[in-house]
Amino acid sequence: MSSVFKFCLILILSLGASHSLAETTEEKGLRIAKEAEARNNGFIGDESDLEMILIDAYGSKIIRKMQGKVLEVENDGDKSLNIFLNPKDVKGTKMLTWSHKKDDDNQWLYLPSLKRVKKISSRNKSSSFMGSEFSYEDIGSQEIEKYKFNFIKDGKSADGEDVHIIERVPVANSGYSKQVVQISKKHLNAVHVSYYDRKNELLKTADMSDFKKYTVAGKELWRASNIHMKNVQTKKESIFKWNNRKLGVKFKENLFTKRALKR
């Protein structure tokens, strides 16, 4: 075999191999989502003091304070509990979410004025959570099994951070037609999300900031301390703030039950 023919053969084989190994945009988007999920797993339990700031179109603010707890569940979505502490009109209200990888999330709201637990219907998950710009769907965890992914491009966030930009499209009932997510290459967390309504028009945006590092069982985990949600259609805004956050907390599972909501 001549050296020229051998070189051509190697070139053809190498080109064929690289082509077969090339990812589609769908495969790359899913891979990035899986890498982000793996990077953020292992927190065991998350406990914090929360502030939810509601800002109307004229800039007036209402501040609500909560206690938040999240239980990591192996092989399924997480369980979360939010307890409102003040002001008086919402004090004692509790929100319990059991998120799932494939099935619809289960969500219950305890209303102290009625002393009863109300189940949130999956048809209502696009509704506002306690008057905020966050929906019940946003409060549930964003399990990757509930979306189809597509890699758009690499780019920069508004703060100049290197990010992957991916699109995720819900595969089941959702208040959104799609979401465009910027994922930090540094810590594989979302730093910006654009939400599109069922008409495929931009509805709202979320910016995640003030990331803090936590260590659980030797693993470094990053979490945003602020999420700023802006509704571009109504001009209303809402901010979630995490204070005194602890990861690695070991909760009893019976804390995250319907029965416990009435205690």
TrEMBL record:
Residues 78-263 form the Uncharacterized protein TP-0789 domain. Gene3D superfamilies: Lipoprotein localisation LolA/LolB/LppX. Residues 1-22 form the signal peptide. Keywords: Signal. Coiled coil: none annotated. InterPro entries: TP_0789-like. This is Exported protein. It comes from Halobacteriovorax marinus (strain ATCC BAA-682 / DSM 15412 / SJ). The lineage of its organism: Bacteria, Pseudomonadati, Bdellovibrionota, Bacteriovoracia, Bacteriovoracales.
